[in-house]
Design a protein that fits this description.
mainly alpha; 2 helices
């Protein structure tokens, strides 16, 4: 996994978690859903990079 892609994946996961928790704190369902979506996007990016690494080795 390239360091840049790994960092992007982690950043999306963290940003999504913060947005989700902030949305929950203020009762904003839209922000909560957006946060969950960002976390999923980060998870998928990480999984994609891991798969690429698996095929390289």
């Amino acid at each position: 996994m390239s360091a840049g892609e790994k960092a992007k994946a982690k950043a999306e996961q963290v940003k999504g978690k913060v947005k989700e928790e902030a949305g929950r704190a203020v009762g904003n369902e839209s922000a909560t859903a957006e946060g969950q979506a960002e976390q999923s996007k980060g998870d998928l990016r990480g999984a994609k990079e891991k798969a690429k690494d698996a095929f390289k080795h």
